[in-house]
């Protein structure tokens, strides 16, 4: 019996639930990288990065290409980069809404708010 799609989606999002994995995917959205190239940017130990890359490989989000003793990583689909871009848009909207609420809270009671520009 197959699992419901919502459970599969939840597992997919759990895979994305670590900052190091998100950063790896961001870097790979730009171009192929070796693990050594990503280390300095991600700021974790090599063994830790290797574990995160393995999780992303098992999830089918990244693939490897061997060149001598080096493994080069890339995204399996451009949709992964699109997902990260959409997440950025969603977060921008959420944070903008929070900023508007903060402005409302800072305005003394009874004082009129200037009209907000919507764009």
Automatic annotation (TrEMBL):
InterPro entries in UniProt: ArsR-like_HTH, HTH_ArsR_DNA-bd_dom, Metal_resp_trans_reg, WH-like_DNA-bd_sf, WH_DNA-bd_sf
A Pfam family per the record: HTH_20
Keyword match Iron: no
Domain of life, per lineage: Bacteria
Domain HTH arsR-type: 1-95
Keywords from the UniProt entry: DNA-binding, Transcription, Transcription regulation
SUPFAM superfamilies recorded: Winged helix' DNA-binding domain
Keyword hit for Manganese: no
Official protein name in the record: Metalloregulator ArsR/SmtB family transcription factor
């Amino acid at each position: 019996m197959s699992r419901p799609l919502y459970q599969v989606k939840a597992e997919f999002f759990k895979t994305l639930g670590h900052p190091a994995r998100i950063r790896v995917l961001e870097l790979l959205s730009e171009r192929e990288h070796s693990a050594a190239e990503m280390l300095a940017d991600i700021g974790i130990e090599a063994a830790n990065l290797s574990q995160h890359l393995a999780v992303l490989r098992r999830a089918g989000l990244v693939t490897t290409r061997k060149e001598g003793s080096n493994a080069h990583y890339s995204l399996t689909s451009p949709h992964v980069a699109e997902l990260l871009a959409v997440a950025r848009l969603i977060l921008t909207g959420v944070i903008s809404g929070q900023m508007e609420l903060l402005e409302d809270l800072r305005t003394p009671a009874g004082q009129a708010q200037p009209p907000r520009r919507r764009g």
